[in-house]
Amino acid sequence: MAEENPKGPPPPQSQPKMTQGKPIPKHMASTPATGNAGRTLCSCITVFLILAGITALTVWLIYRPHKPRFTVVGAAIYDLNFSSPPFISTSMQFTIFTRNPNKRVSIFYDRLTAYVSYRNQQITLPVDLPPLFHETKSTVALSPVLGGFGVPVSAEVVNGLRMDEAYGVVALKVVLLGRLRWKAGAIRTAKYGVYVRCNVLVGLKKSLLGQVPLLDAPPCKVDI
Q1: Which of 2, 111, 130, 217 has the greatest number of beta carbons closer than 10 A?
Q2: Neighbouring residues of 35: CB distance < 8 A, sequence distance ≥ 6
Q3: Which residues contact 220 (CB under 8 A, 6 or more apart)?
Q4: Could you read off the pLDDT tens digit of each residue along the chain, which spans 224 residues?
Q5: What is the Cα–Cα distance from 139 to 107, expressed in whole angstroms?
């Protein structure tokens, strides 16, 4: 007769989990899923970008900067000579009023240059103007002296200027080029190019130097 085991039968051993008949390693059986965390992060970034866009649009609609205005109010010609092959030597000064029409937005001019053209040909060298900060609802006067010695031009320009000078009326264009930024409170925009063209008619005679009559000076065209 077989002797009974007083301790009873041995406890059953734990079997590894099966997946399609194969055991799952213990280090993989309880790995947490990371997909939810990635989707949550993407959702947060999307919501942030949408809110940032809405905020920027709201600020822009509230402040909405208007372009500055430029007007020529005075002119002086101190020298105008012609030489071969042909060249022009001249010295001119124009007084320009620039107006910031915005109530909440000021303007920084980081760079501004000016020159004079005749029949779409440059007759003075570009002159750099000092940096300018334009307060809200303010007007600033600029009076650059523009000129140069021996600026090369075409024969058409020389002949046209001589004829206009004999007639007593000369059509000129004052051009300003530069870059500006808008400022509203603590917000500053990126830099934008500014292109200003001021068409003027001046009374000019060969014997008349210095301040000349400004016969016509409509508001300047401004492109941002």
Answers
A1: 217
A2: none
A3: 69, 70, 71, 72, 96, 174, 196, 197, 198, 199
A4: 445 555 555 555 555 555 555 555 555 554 455 667 777 878 888 888 887 766 665 555 455 789 999 999 999 999 999 988 899 999 999 999 999 999 989 999 989 999 999 999 999 999 999 989 999 999 999 999 999 888 999 999 999 999 999 999 999 999 999 999 998 888 888 899 999 999 999 999 887 789 999 999 999 999 99
A5: 12
